[in-house]
Design goal:
Bound molecules: adenosine-5'-triphosphate, magnesium ion
Structural class: alpha/beta
Radius of gyration: 31 Å
Domain tRNA synthetases class I (E and Q) anti-codon binding: 449-528
Number of strands: 27
Enzyme class: ligase
Helix content: 10-25%
Shape: elongated
CATH topology of the largest domain: Rossmann fold
CATH superfamily of the largest domain: HUPs
GO molecular function: ATP binding; glutamine-tRNA ligase activity
Oligomer: single chain
Domain Glutamyl/glutaminyl-tRNA synthetase class Ib anti-codon binding: 335-435
EC number: 6.1.1.18
CATH class of the largest domain: Alpha Beta
């Protein structure tokens, strides 16, 4: 049970459960004005999880009452993301389905003398609410107009006889209540932007404050779960359903989830996208759900993460490494192992013949037969990672250096470097080495085994890939910290590194976009959508490191 919130009155819940035949009904209610982010994964988990725990149902409800901000692509992506996380909405609904009923109830509210049409400007309204200095509050001059007059004015608003901003419907609440959510909230405003579902059928649109509780009520939601910034709205929520004598769900708040070194708000993400700081809403450095999906995070890892941080009323800022640990642990279980080198260095095994080709069968995951195996070629020319060779040796360096031996993963004998070849500029271009396969002079068992890929045109090996390595987009844990001089100045311009000449062994063929693998000794990777898998062109994204990065 989401832990002991004093707001939940047991009798009330029992009453509600009677109405719904004992079913717990929840809803996940995103506004389709952006892509979902990691915080929404928590909201999804809370709502779907709570319903599931009580054998109830959870709706996906698009809270689509603001035609100015909403777009088709967001609707599509939201459902896709919910399903990707493994949840199936009981029903997919839209607040806009209820525009007529919401309108009828607004008329009803006016007739009950609980709403009025107001023509104040935003400034006047703000002044009546005590202004910036939170001074004395006043009821506006339209508040006392006769019911008949408000009805007629509301009709005019609906008929398009008012310009935007010239008339609003306000709820007649309590200007003297200390809770700002009682200061005659706006219920309807005039907007001439066509709505993606209702077109130009309406030119008045209900606000969040007016719509949310009513649609919860229409849908017989038993537990209206929302984040703590709506705590003060709880009373206005109840005020409205009570004013209309409708079934009243119980609102219950939980803390928002935030992550370090990133921003989640749609407005900020939008700025990053439109200013070209990131490649799009699914740039793998972002923490939108499409972005982390593209980066290779799995639904299992995300769900486990949000489940384990738990449901409390505190807003939490979680370090990104904590999320990464869940991803790493899951990928450790499911990702096949492949050999890849990000910065290739050619090694010629001079004692093997030009046409030497052997095939080795390697396990997709060592010590786990259930993941099967694949074959890789081994030839006279192999590529290792440049970082596994040092021209100037060091006793603590256990990889390849002149005169030194190192093991090649999956290969029975080590190799010993015999010669360093450089170009005119002094850059190392090739290492000549001996393959220690002579049974009469066996080399010592190497301390280290490094990854490699073979040059075998016959096997189409190696596979050249573009490897994208991501760091935190922001340098500080809290980019919004006021000491930093603006979050846009905290961007790490070095947060994307691209290895265009990376090489992967043939096992990568057969992987599709979104397939994950562990590049042994390097990191976990995911095949990016920029790949052309059919043509054998791969772009891979670093998902997470193999171990927690101590630098962070
Ligand atoms: P943003 O401020 O990023 O635009 P929002 O709250 O306006 O977010 P909605 O689309 O309205 O986003 O959110 C749908 C649901 O998800 C709401 O119930 C909201 O409270 C919840 N939610 C949004 N962000 C978080 C978060 N960071 N942690 C937990 N729940 C969240
Ligand atoms: Mg919202
Ligand atoms: Mg929002």
């Amino acid at each position: 049970k989401p832990g002991g919130n004093p707001q939940i009155r047991p009798q009330l819940i029992e009453e509600h459960l009677k109405r719904t035949g004992g079913k717990v009904l929840t809803r996940f209610p995103p506004e389709p004005n952006g892509f979902l982010h990691i915080g929404h994964a928590k909201a999804i988990n809370v709502n779907f999880g709570y319903a599931a725990a009580f054998d109830g149902h959870c709706y996906l409800r698009y809270d689509d009452t603001n035609p100015e901000a909403e777009e088709e692509k967001y609707f599509t992506s939201i459902l896709e993301t919910v399903e990707w996380l493994g949840y199936k909405p009981w029903k997919v609904t839209y607040s806009s389905d209820h525009f007529q009923r919401l309108y009828d109830l607004a008329v009803d509210l006016i007739k009950r003398d609980k709403a009025y049409v107001c023509h104040c400007t935003a400034e006047e309204m703000n002044a009546d609410r005590g202004g910036e200095e939170r001074g004395e509050r006043k009821e506006c001059r339209h508040r006392s107009r006769p019911i008949e007059e408000s009805l007629a004015e509301f009709q005019k608003m609906k008929e398009g006889r008012y310009e935007e901003g010239k008339a609003i419907l306000r709820m007649k609440m309590d200007m003297q209540n200390p809770n700002p959510q009682f200061w005659d909230l706006v219920a309807y405003r005039v907007l001439y932007t066509p709505h993606h579902r209702t077109g130009d059928q309406w030119c008045i649109y209900p606000t969040y404050d007016y719509t949310h509780c009513l649609v919860d009520s229409f849908e017989d939601i038993t537990h209206s779960l929302c984040t703590t910034e709506f705590r003060l709205s709880r009373e206005s929520y109840y005020w409205l359903v009570d004013a209309l004598e409708l079934y009243k769900p119980v609102q219950w708040e939980y803390g928002r989830l935030n992550l370090t070194n990133t921003v989640l708000s749609k407005r900020k993400l939008n700025k990053l996208v439109t200013e070209g700081i990131v490649s799009g809403w699914d740039d793998p450095r972002l923490y939108t759900l499409p972005a982390v999906r593209r980066r290779g995070f799995t639904p299992e890892a995300i769900n486990a993460f949000v489940r384990d941080i738990g449901v409390t009323t505190a807003n939490t800022v979680i370090r990104v490494d904590r999320l990464e640990k869940y991803v790493r642990d899951h990928l450790n279980d499911i990702a096949p192992r492949l050999m890849a080198v990000l910065e290739p260095l050619k090694v010629t095994l001079t004692n093997l013949s030009e046409d030497h080709v052997e095939e080795f069968t390697v396990a997709n995951k060592p010590r786990d037969d259930s993941m099967g195996s694949h074959k890789i070629p081994f030839t006279r020319t192999v590529y290792i990672d440049a970082s596994d060779f040092r021209e100037v040796d060091d006793p603590n360096f256990y990889r390849l250096a002149p005169g030194k031996s190192v093991g090649l993963l999956n290969v029975p004998y080590p190799i010993t470097a015999t010669e360093v070849i450089k170009d005119a500029g002094g850059k190392i271009t090739e290492i000549k080495a001996r393959f220690e396969n002579d049974a009469n002079t066996p080399a010592k068992k190497p301390k280290t085994f490094i990854q490699w890929v073979a040059d075998s045109p016959k096997h189409n090996s190696p596979v050249k890939v573009e490897a994208r390595i991501y760091g935190n987009l922001f340098k500080h844990e809290n980019p919004l910290d006021s000491k930093l001089g603006g979050w846009m100045t905290d961007i790490d311009s070095d947060s994307l590194k691209v290895h265009r000449e990376a090489l992967v062994e043939v096992g990568i063929r057969g992987l599709e976009v979104e397939s994950k693998f562990q590049a042994v000794r390097v990191a976990y990777f995911c095949v990016d959508k920029d790949s052309d898998v059919g043509k054998g062109r791969y772009v891979i994204n670093k998902t997470v490191g193999l171990k927690e990065d101590s630098k962070k």
